[in-house]
Write a structure and sequence with these properties.
The protein is of the alpha+beta class and 109 residues long. It has a single domain, classed as SH3 type barrels, CATH 2.30.30.100. It has one helix and five strands; from the N terminus they run αβββββ. It has a five-stranded antiparallel beta sheet, with no helix packed on it. The longest helix has 48 residues. It is elongated. Keywords: Membrane, Transmembrane, Transmembrane helix.
């Protein structure tokens, strides 16, 4: 094998290593997502049961993807996946639907 052959072999080995490493990273990310979803399934049922005490009350709700909270909203209704929030403004009533599994914390206003 000449130097061109060794360069080609080295290049193929490098491509294989990068491809293999990329697949391992993807696999780890997918495993984390599956674990988070499985934990979320358990948590959603618990959160749905806990939301009952906040129905009809003004609440401060902090979502997973948010630093600031949704304050002064009234929890009107909820089911296993969604929660309906309402709020009176000068222009009338605003309605917001949020996913129950996105709720990080909830407390009385």
């Amino acid at each position: 094998m000449g130097s061109l052959g060794w360069m080609m072999l080295s290049f193929l080995a490098l491509v294989f290593i990068v491809y293999h490493e990329n697949n391992q990273n993807k696999m780890k990310r997918l495993q984390k997502q599956v674990k988070r979803l499985a934990a979320g399934e358990k948590g959603v049922n618990d959160m749905s049961a806990l939301l009952q005490e906040f129905v009809g009350k003004k609440c401060v709700i902090i979502l997973d993807d948010s630093i600031t909270g949704l304050d002064n909203w009234i929890l009107e209704a909820y089911d296993e996946q969604w929660a309906k929030l309402t709020r009176e403004t000068k222009k009338g009533q605003k309605v917001k639907l949020i996913r129950v599994d996105d709720i990080k914390t909830i407390q009385d206003y």
